[in-house]
Amino acid sequence: MAEEELGLKAELVEEGEEELVSIHFSDYLKNASSIRHKPWKLHNQDLRDGYVHLRKGKFARLLQEALRQRIEEELPLEVNEAILEQLSDEIESVVEGVERLRETIQKESYGEFSLDYMPPCMLDLLTKTQQGVNVPHMGRFALTAFLSHVGLDADDILQLFRASSDFKESIASYQVHHILGDISGTRYTPPSCSTMQTYGICLKDKSCERVGSPRYYYFRKQRRAERQSGRQAPPPETEAETEAETEEGEKEVAEDA
Ligand code: SF4
Question: What residue spans define the domains of the chain?
Answer without folding.
Answer: 2-73, 115-249
